[in-house]
Amino acid sequence: MEASSSLKSAPAAPHPVPVPADFSELYETYFDFVWANARRLGVAPAQVDDAVQDVFLAVYRRLPEFRGEASFKTWLFHFVLRVASTYRRSANAAERRSAPDATAEAADPTTPDAQVATKQAAELMYRLLEELPENRRALFILVELEEVSVAEAAAVLELNLNTAHSRLRDARRDFERAVERERAREDWRAR
Amino acid sequence: MKPLDEAARDVLRAGRAAERPSAADRARVRHKLEVAMAAGVVGPAIAAPASGAKAWWASKLFLGGAAGGGVAVVAAAVALSLSGSASAPHAVAMAPAATAPEPVLDVRDVPDLAESDEVEVEAPVAPSTPRPQRRLKRVRAKTAEPVVTAPAPVQAAPVPEPRREDDTLEAEAQALHEVQAALRARDSERALALIAEQNRRFPRGQLQPERDGARVLALCASDVTNGTAALSQFVAAHPGSPLLARLKAACAK
After folding, report:
1. In sequence order, which residues have a C-beta less than 8 Å from that of residue B191 and are 6 or more positions away?
2. Which residues touch B146 (CB under 8 Å, ≥6 apart)?
3. What local confidence, expressed as pLDDT, does residue B26 receive?
């Protein structure tokens, strides 16, 4: 799953594990992954810098414990999930709504239309993901966005496989309904 | 199982294509990370998942039931050099943590948690396996060496009835999390009430210094005069505490 071509595995590992040989490389390789999943898991734009930093600090400390029993990406996802959960809990909902949105360039008339549309697509996805119940969201993200198998996602999230299938089915249904609602709102606004 | 419908997939496809952080985002966070590491900030204490579910993950994902069999700790030689320069002042060699066969719950200083939203998170435990015994390891304050997981002394010492002791410390740590949550929510009154209750509940608790530190923080946040007095008491009770600098800084605000 990882871009192993640029990664070196630790020399002593019996199972080559695609972990970058230095932390700088690890940061460069997985920054996008951590950032995107922090946002997907509900970390507000104004807090995402701090959340990403926390993830890498935690990973730095725990990296020696990674044994290659799961893919590094899903191992890393565990940290993003925990940090995001903390940020969501601690963030005041009102503050979250009023926090300056680092990606809110739509208000800038000099921003090219295509760029605005791109940002809006991401924001729409985050907003719809946020509508998913918490116990389904991470599973949905892993399977639908990170393309992890249901079995592996279940292992990462410590779910029984049947439970994972059931929750994924519910999450898909929820997300489809959220998309339908959004489309209905758009239609209404366009009238 | 029914796959996502086309409209939903379109939203995800467009969203995923659009969500890449910019080079400026990457550079900005990198700089923050460098500064934090240079300052010895160790970040949130989150137990690594693999340590808590080794056999389960191994058997489920890779080893086909032959769990464990020689899976080694990797990244032992991983070194940190975010600047790319070996002589950078913040370059930190990451020491191998050897093996950490059991999940570790780090109990860290409350002031850090309160100020930087740090949180303790237990390693998740596989639902299909018996819950393994947890060892608790207290991590002292911030140091420039962020590897804090090697539980050698704990492992070496024979522990006749570790379960009971661990449970007590775990309960104390769990209770302290509530204090931390109250501090993060800037609810000093609740934090103080919790601390008082926990002082009664754990009269010889191992996390007394952390509770005392949390009390100083709560008081300084609500009443500077009382906070200063509490700080003096803390200094007298814990003169060498690594929390002192944090507490003084918090009370000076």
Report:
1. B179, B182, B183, B214, B215, B217, B218
2. A57, A60, A61, B37, B40, B42, B43, B92, B94
3. 92
Q: What CATH number corresponds to the domain at position A186?
A: 1.10.10.10
Assess whether pLDDT exceeds 50 at residue A80. Answer: yes
Number of domains in chain A: 2
Is there a single domain that holds both residue A93 and residue A145?
Answer: no
Report the C-alpha gap between B111 and B141 in whole angstroms: 10
Domain boundaries, chain B: 52-96, 101-253
Q: Using 50, 70 and 90 to split pLDDT, how confident is the model at A19?
A: low
Contact A176 B20 (CB under 8 A): no
Find the domain containing A116 and state its range.
111-191
Chain B residues with beta carbon closer than 8 angstroms to that of A23 = 78-82, 94
Of A9, A56, A78, the CB nearest to B33: A56
User: Which chain A residue is nearest to residue B95, measuring alpha carbons?
Assistant: A64
| A10 and A83 belong to one structural domain | yes
Q: Cα separation of B222 and B186, whole Å?
A: 9
Question: Do both A94 and A131 map to the same domain?
Answer: no
Rounded to two decimals, the pTM is 0.51
A48 and A118, same domain (yes or no): no
Would you call A149 an interface residue with chain B, using a CB distance cutoff of 8 Å?
no
Residues A132, A69 share a domain: no
Q: What is the pLDDT along chain B (253 residues), one digit of tens a residue?
A: 788 999 999 999 999 998 888 899 999 999 888 887 777 676 677 777 643 333 233 222 222 223 333 222 233 333 344 544 333 333 333 333 333 333 333 334 343 433 443 434 343 333 333 343 444 344 343 333 333 333 333 344 444 444 444 457 667 777 888 888 888 888 888 889 999 988 888 887 777 888 888 888 888 888 767 788 888 888 888 776 667 777 888 888 7
Answer whether A65 sits within 8 Å of B73, measured CB to CB.
yes
* DSSP-derived secondary structure for chain A: ---GGG----TT-SS-----SBHHHHHHHHHHHHHHHHHHTT--GGGHHHHHHHHHHHHHHHGGG--SSS-HHHHHHHHHHHHHHHHHHHS-HHHHHHS--TT-GGG-TTS-HHHHHHHHHHHHHHHHHHTS-HHHHHHHIIIIIS---HHHHHHHHT--HHHHHHHHHHHHHHHHHHHHHHHHHHHHHH-
ipTM, two decimals, is 0.78
